[in-house]
Amino acid sequence: MHHISAEMRSCIDECLRCYQTCLGTAMTHCLEQGASMSSLAIFAS
Q1: Strand runs labelled E in the chain
Q2: Residue 43 in contact with residue 26, Cβ under 8 Å?
């Protein structure tokens, strides 16, 4: 198994937090603009 350093793990965690914030913001914005839940499926891919 490949070892991931603490520094690399921290970087990955920060990237995931950024991604989650971006995704949540985009989905909220789209819903506020009137997009249907089915049209938000693009975010799932």
Answers
A1: none
A2: yes
**Structure pTM?**
0.64
Q: Which residue is associated with the tokens 């799932």? A: 44
Q: What are phi and psi of 6, to 5 degrees?
A: -60, -35
Mean pLDDT score, 8-17 = 96
Exposure letters 5-37 (e unless 16+ CB within 10 A, then b): eeeeeeeeeeeeeeeeeeeeeeeeebeeeeeee
Q: Which two tokens stand for residue 39?
A: 């049209």
Residue with the two structure tokens 């506020």: 32
Residues 29, 33, 37, CA angle at the centre, nearest 5°? 80
